[in-house]
Amino acid sequence: NKKKDTHLSQLASVGQIAAGIAHEVRNPLTAVKGFLQLMKEKKDTKYIEIAEAELGNAINILQNLLHVSKPDLEEEAHSSIDLSVELDALTQLFQDQMYRVSVHSRLQNPGSYILGRKNQLKKVFFNLLKNAFEAIPGKGAIHIEHMATEQEVIVSIQDTGVGIPQDKLRMLGTPFYTTKENGTGMGLTLVFSVIYQHNGVIEVQSAENGGTKFTITFPKETKNIRLKEVVYLELEATMG
Ligand code: ADP
Ligand code: MG
């Protein structure tokens, strides 16, 4: 029996986000300062490239954040999107790249069209698949299922990975929350933000060492896509 626990409206606190940004941007900037000093002392221009790369890191971090907080800067038009086409393309992409994990895709009903922003939605599924891969040590599998009902399009992505401890579920989507050495902690922040803008709901079922399943439900007729500018995290966490 599954105990269902719902955390709605997890609005990450401004302080937490600010601290995250400060921390993330301070590191590359501190490095730039160091390399500029070295350059001055050693009169060697080789440090310019390293400093440039570090500045690039800082800019990337800020760009990721901008994307999440103001996705409409991109002004991508809404269009009718066949999610099964996008998911099949991603399945192919991941399957070609990573032999150690088998990716299975199953469409239950044709007609999984939704109205939305295609590039943003691609990023959503790309990030969920990337996380699934990264959660699988060695060999494993990912199952993608998509089905359409009269009202909704439902997509689930299930992996055989390490799973998420119950007490960490509420952290998902918080900017900069990562358990990976080279993680950004921005993937799920983007995912939640875009799904929310499409009036969708994301649900996660996970157990430590028991794999993870994300289920996303979109309404088919998303007439007025929300134009929120805040990072608003809506997570229904189902704990198995
Ligand atoms: P990142 O991938 O850069 O760490 P994300 O926002 O994409 O940032 O994910 C945040 C964290 O959530 C990950 O570091 C990981 O701990 C956890 N997570 C996300 N997806 C999964 C998954 N499918 N299985 C296990 N843990 C996951
Ligand atoms: Mg990620």
Automatic annotation (TrEMBL):
Source taxon at top rank: Bacteria
Domain Histidine kinase: 20-222
Protein name: histidine kinase
Species the sequence originates in: Paenibacillus taihuensis
Highest classification ranks of the organism: Bacteria, Bacillati, Bacillota, Bacilli, Bacillales
Parent-protein residues present: 10 to 249 of 515
